[in-house]
Automatic annotation (TrEMBL):
The keyword Signal does not apply. The lineage of its organism: Bacteria, Bacillati, Bacillota, Negativicutes, Acidaminococcales. Belongs to the ABC transporter superfamily. PROSITE patterns: ABC_TRANSPORTER_1 (PS00211), ABC_TRANSPORTER_2 (PS50893). One of its GO terms (biological process) is transmembrane transport. The keyword Nucleotidyltransferase does not apply. SMART domains: AAA (SM00382). Keywords: ATP-binding, Nucleotide-binding, Transport. SUPFAM superfamilies: P-loop containing nucleoside triphosphate hydrolases. Signal peptide: none annotated. This is ABC transporter ATP-binding protein.
Length: 223
């Protein structure tokens, strides 16, 4: 479903002015309904690779395919379709919500951005799925907990009926008890919606519990 071929990415070190290669000739494939974990230490390039796969960052070389279509340089409608189908869940979900907007308005934006008809019933269905009360939609981000914000971001992603979720350490900023709740929720959602996951983590035990395969990135390459 999502395939990357020979992805490389270099950056300039601001202190030395020298160029260093963070990713070198990385290739991977995520099949429909498959959960793949991407592990690596801090600075290994795992989050950079995720941003490239999401088309949030360009690569220096290589190609990205989604459902057989080359989307490396996609723009306009093709890029919009890709972004609807491949949704991102961050470790800092609050950064994806406007603090001036109530949570209900943030969910409404998901329909507006992708030119979809507003569907209140679908919102209710997804709120039930993530075990949230609709009353929360009348609150602002600062009025709810970190776990509730992460669930709202899940709802916003699921409203678009994506085929793949890219999850960048989605529980790392949450309390231990809340982490467990979100992780079990992610496992249940995947089973119910038959979603594919790219799950970025540094936790080997968690990766093996949630995912079908575990990939390791070291020195810019997959091992």
């Amino acid at each position: 479903m999502l395939k990357a071929e020979n992805i490389s990415k270099s950056f300039i070190d601001r202190s030395s002015g020298k160029t260093f290669e963070l990713l070198h000739d990385v290739s991977l494939e995520i099949k429909a309904g498959e959960a793949v974990a991407l592990m690596g230490g801090s600075g290994s390039g795992k989050s950079t690779l995720a941003r490239i796969l999401l088309r949030l960052l360009s690569c220096d070389s290589g190609k990205i395919y989604f459902q057989g279509q080359n989307i490396t340089q996609a723009t306009g409608k093709d890029l919009s379709i890709f972004r609807r189908n491949v949704q991102f869940i961050s470790q800092r979900p609050e950064s994806f919500l406007d603090p001036r907007q109530k949570l209900g308005s943030s969910l409404r934006e998901a329909f507006i951005v992708f030119n979809l008809p507003y569907d209140e019933e679908k919102i209710k269905e997804m709120l039930d799925l993530v075990k949230l009360n609709a009353e929360l939609l009348q609150r602002y981000p600062h009025q709810v907990s970190g776990g509730e914000i992460q669930r709202i971001c899940l709802v916003r992603a699921l409203l678009l009926e994506p085929k793949l979720l890219v999850l960048d350490e989605p529980t790392s900023m949450l309390d231990i008890s809340v982490q467990a709740q979100i992780l079990h929720l992610l496992r249940d959602i995947r089973r119910e919606k038959q979603l594919a996951y790219l799950f970025i983590t540094h936790d080997k035990q968690l990766a093996e519990w949630l995912c079908d395969r575990v990939l390791h990135i070291e020195q810019g390459q997959l091992k």
